[in-house]
Each structure stands twice: as C-alpha cells, then as structure tokens.
Specification:
Helix content is 27%, strand content 19%. By secondary structure, it is an alpha/beta fold.
Length: 206
C-alpha cells in the first residue's frame, strides 16, 4: 500500500512440494541473499533433510559466496539456462499460486504484514492444501485413508449394475445433496486450484 516493492526469498523441495519462506526485503543485496542461504542450510539440518541439488537462476545476487554455503554441505548448484523458465518451473508455478491465491486477493500494507500473510499461507500450503502429485496429500500431511463404506464423505455412492448377460459393473452416482454443485464435484466455491509438479529431491530459491 505504501508503494514499496518487496522481494521474497523462498525455497521449495521437489520431493514433497514443501515450501519455506525465509524473508522479505525492499533492498535485496548479496549479503542478504547469502545470509538467507545460511538460514536454508540451518533449517535443513534441523529438519534432518538430505538435499543433493539446488536449482537457481542467474540473478546477480546469487554470487560465489551464495553457492559456497551450499557446496560446503555437498549440495550441487544447478544454474538454469538463459531465458529457460522451464528449468525452474516448479518454483515459477509456486510463485503463480502464491500470487493467485494470496497476493491478488489481499491488500498488503507493509513488510510486517506481508511476512505475516506469507507465514499463514506457508502453513496452509504445507499442512492443508492438497496436491495432485502427492495424491491429494499435503506436503506435511499424509494422504487420507481410502473410503471403504458405500457412501463416502463427498456425497458419492457405489451402485452395482448387472446387465442381461449377468456381468456386474460398478458405477458412481452423485447423491442429491442440497446446495451441492453435482456437475463439478472437484470445485470449491467455483474456483480451480493449480498444482505443483514433482521432480526429485531438489530445492529452488525463488
């Protein structure tokens, strides 16, 4: 709201799509980026995570000192090609998700408000938001148990149909639930949500 452009430093783990937002600043410098890299390494050590590669773009703030922080932990740096956004597609997709689901719907007042909003979104994204590549699980929440009873919580019931030849097939028919849009059971309030991909055990700084 005050017209200041803020830059956010975040990383995402490819194996489980877990996002980690490490800070925001109006003046990103080499020293600030390098300190953020140290924070990433400390968080990985605290979580007991093993990372083999880090994919980053060619921003001038990612200097030799930045790379050295990860190389000291035996993490190989992979630099994206010039104007090849597909090499950083998972991070690019998350940035779009954050913009569409949070920033485009929220009036940010200042840096403190931005960090608070991003912290809430990070918790939602990691603990509650389902991901297609994780089979409807969240990065920090296991997939729900399969439904075995006849009628599940989504309002669908299983019906056995036997044809004249005596063979049996199973179909799914939506129940008539008041207020439910049966034509689009996968939508929530008419909104579609994008999903992240899954490519190995790597991290991306955004």
């Amino acid at each position: 709201m005050n017209g200041v452009t803020l830059y956010v430093f975040s990383v995402i783990e490819h194996a489980n799509c877990r996002i980690c937002i490490l800070g925001a600043t109006a003046h990103p410098t080499v020293d600030w980026a390098t300190q953020a890299a140290r924070n990433v390494v400390m968080d990985l050590q605290d979580a007991g995570a093993t990372v083999t590669h880090l994919i980053r773009d060619r921003d001038s703030k990612f200097t030799r000192a930045f790379d050295a922080v990860f190389e000291a932990e035996d993490i190989e740096i992979v630099t994206t090609g010039i104007r090849v956004p597909r090499m950083n597609s998972i991070t690019e997709r998350w940035v779009q998700t954050c913009r569409h689901e949070l920033l485009d719907r929220t009036s940010i007042w200042n840096q403190a408000h931005l960090l608070h909003a991003l912290g809430e979104f990070e918790a939602f994204y990691n603990q509650h938001r389902p991901h297609r590549t994780l089979h409807s699980a969240a990065p920090l929440r296991p997939a729900p148990e399969p439904i075995t009873n006849a009628t599940d919580s989504t309002g669908w019931t299983s019906i056995d149909v036997t044809d004249s030849a005596g063979s049996s097939t199973s179909t799914h028919t939506p129940l008539d639930v008041p207020g439910r849009n049966n034509r689009h059971p996968h939508r929530l309030d008419g909104l579609r949500h994008p999903y992240l991909g899954h490519v190995g055990k790597m991290l991306n700084p955004a």
